[in-house]
């Protein structure tokens, strides 16, 4: 019976064959222990010299790291293993021998591992991070599909920029200028006017020359947009969505979280509703904490966000930022025009902003005024303006950065480990 490691629980005390690679091995005279992986998981194969043919034991002791093979044996329960099962090996059939595999069990530097990212992905730690990433994606689709959202795919090549052109990758679109998208938001607003509640999930690009552990040049965004939803409605969806994906990872990735050494008691506290602090109060809080470098009207940096987050055990909304430091499309507060109806959701434990969202301007004249103030009067925004001319309604949305969210939930230090092939300021290989 051919099966996979993730399915062995169905075949206890039965003989199975698994296609696998050798992740590691050790032997103690008459027993060889093979750490096997097949993409679905990891299992220990035990080869006892007295229970197999001599050539099988000899082969098991000489197999090199990352050699591919078919391994046949009996599945047994193993209470000592976090996985819960082991394979009593009866036969090994080599498919391809791996020679001088570069990533050995010893310590390697980060740059070496990044140069070999195509192989580093095979490690147990990276496997766990990718599985958690996949679960967050799966849960994202479940959440939005079960709540009446329609998936819409905005273009990656655009003729305009939602948040200015200073951090965009420019290219030529035949005989006109184009940019790699930094957000699908403007297009999702159009989709919301047609379909009510929509979400997108796709790659975005920022030509930001940053080397921090929170930044990537190419990353993935989940961007919902909702017609007839105002500021408070928007926050409610955000906290329910984040609570949902955290619970999904706790339910379905317990082994991966254990592999990463994640303190799950911290994740178990992530339940909506989330605390909030206004920008005004955040400035006062930071001053009280000794951050005299920041003044009202300044944007928060990583140290400021971390200081605020440390005051809470759950993600915290920072709301009502100054109008002048936010994009042109955000709706001003009803009682003061110097702040807008927006919020950044800051993850606990120093992981920074994972969501940025706002109520969008729905008045055509105000939007036109904001476009002019930002020098965005070209024909490229004509279609966006027209959304307010034909049946405009209050609407809101947000964007969640997948990689920062994976980093936070997984407990890994750097976002470069949360995407299969990271694009960094100094890295376009592999």
UniProtKB/TrEMBL annotation:
<dbReference type="InterPro" id="IPR006195">
    <property type="entry name" value="aa-tRNA-synth_II"/>
</dbReference>
<keyword id="KW-0030">Aminoacyl-tRNA synthetase</keyword>
<comment type="similarity">
    <text>Belongs to the class-II aminoacyl-tRNA synthetase family.</text>
</comment>
<dbReference type="Pfam" id="PF00152">
    <property type="entry name" value="tRNA-synt_2"/>
</dbReference>
<dbReference type="GO" id="GO:0005737">
    <property type="term" value="C:cytoplasm"/>
</dbReference>
<dbReference type="GO" id="GO:0006421">
    <property type="term" value="P:asparaginyl-tRNA aminoacylation"/>
</dbReference>
<dbReference type="GO" id="GO:0004816">
    <property type="term" value="F:asparagine-tRNA ligase activity"/>
</dbReference>
<dbReference type="Pfam" id="PF01336">
    <property type="entry name" value="tRNA_anti-codon"/>
</dbReference>
<dbReference type="InterPro" id="IPR002312">
    <property type="entry name" value="Asp/Asn-tRNA-synth_IIb"/>
</dbReference>
<keyword id="KW-0963">Cytoplasm</keyword>
<dbReference type="InterPro" id="IPR004364">
    <property type="entry name" value="Aa-tRNA-synt_II"/>
</dbReference>
<comment type="subunit">
    <text>Homodimer.</text>
</comment>
<keyword id="KW-0436">Ligase</keyword>
<keyword id="KW-0067">ATP-binding</keyword>
<dbReference type="InterPro" id="IPR004365">
    <property type="entry name" value="NA-bd_OB_tRNA"/>
</dbReference>
<keyword id="KW-0547">Nucleotide-binding</keyword>
<dbReference type="InterPro" id="IPR004522">
    <property type="entry name" value="Asn-tRNA-ligase"/>
</dbReference>
<dbReference type="GO" id="GO:0003676">
    <property type="term" value="F:nucleic acid binding"/>
</dbReference>
<dbReference type="InterPro" id="IPR045864">
    <property type="entry name" value="aa-tRNA-synth_II/BPL/LPL"/>
</dbReference>
<dbReference type="GO" id="GO:0005524">
    <property type="term" value="F:ATP binding"/>
</dbReference>
<dbReference type="InterPro" id="IPR012340">
    <property type="entry name" value="NA-bd_OB-fold"/>
</dbReference>
<dbReference type="GO" id="GO:0016740">
    <property type="term" value="F:transferase activity"/>
</dbReference>
<feature type="domain" description="Aminoacyl-transfer RNA synthetases class-II family profile">
    <location>
        <begin position="130"/>
        <end position="430"/>
    </location>
</feature>
<keyword id="KW-0648">Protein biosynthesis</keyword>
<protein>
    <recommendedName>
        <fullName>Asparagine--tRNA ligase</fullName>
        <ecNumber>6.1.1.22</ecNumber>
    </recommendedName>
</protein>
<dbReference type="GO" id="GO:0140096">
    <property type="term" value="F:catalytic activity, acting on a protein"/>
</dbReference>
């Amino acid at each position: 019976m051919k099966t996979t490691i993730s399915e062995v629980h169905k075949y206890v005390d039965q003989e199975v064959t698994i296609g696998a690679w050798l992740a590691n091995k050790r032997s103690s005279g008459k027993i060889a222990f093979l750490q096997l992986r097949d993409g679905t998981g990891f299992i220990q194969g035990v080869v006892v010299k007295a229970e197999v043919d001599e050539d099988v034991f000899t082969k098991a002791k000489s197999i090199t790291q990352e050699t591919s093979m078919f391994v046949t044996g009996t599945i047994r329960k193993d209470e000592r293993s976090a996985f819960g099962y082991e394979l009593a090996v009866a036969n090994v059939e080599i498919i391809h021998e791996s020679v001088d595999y570069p990533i050995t069990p010893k310590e390697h530097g980060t740059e070496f591992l990044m140069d070999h990212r195509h192989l580093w992905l095979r490690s147990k730690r990276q496997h766990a991070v990718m599985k958690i990433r996949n679960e967050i994606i799966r849960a994202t689709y479940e959440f939005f599909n079960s709540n009446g959202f329609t998936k819409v795919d905005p273009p990656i090549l655009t003729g305009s920029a939602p948040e200015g052109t200073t951090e965009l990758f420019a290219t030529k679109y035949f005989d006109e200028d184009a940019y790699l998208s930094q957000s699908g938001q403007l297009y999702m607003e159009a989709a919301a006017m047609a379909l009510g509640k929509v979400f997108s999930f796709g790659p975005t690009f920022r030509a930001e020359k940053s080397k921090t552990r929170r930044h990537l040049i190419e990353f993935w965004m989940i961007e919902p947009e909702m017609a007839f939803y105002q500021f408070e409605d928007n926050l409610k969806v955000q906290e329910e969505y984040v609570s949902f994906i955290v619970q999904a990872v706790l339910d379905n990735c317990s082994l991966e979280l254990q592999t990463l050494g994640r303190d799950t008691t911290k994740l178990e506290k992530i339940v909506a509703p989330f605390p909030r602090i206004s920008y005004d109060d955040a400035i006062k809080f930071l001053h009280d904490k000794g951050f005299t470098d920041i003044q009202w009207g300044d944007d928060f940096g990583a140290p400021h966000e971390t200081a605020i987050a440390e005051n809470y055990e759950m993600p915290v909304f920072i709301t009502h930022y100054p109008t002048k430091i936010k994009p042109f499309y955000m709706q001003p507060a009803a009682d003061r025009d110097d702040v807008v109806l927006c919020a950044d959701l800051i993850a606990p434990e120093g992981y920074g902003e994972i969501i940025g969202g706002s109520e969008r301007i729905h008045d055509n004249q105000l939007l036109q005024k904001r476009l002019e103030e930002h020098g965005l009067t070209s024909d490229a925004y004509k279609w966006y303006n027209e959304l307010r001319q034909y049946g405009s309604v209050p609407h809101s949305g947000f964007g969640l950065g997948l990689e920062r969210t994976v980093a936070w939930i997984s407990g890994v230090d750097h976002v470069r480990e949360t995407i299969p092939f990271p694009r960094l300021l100094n890295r376009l290989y592999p």
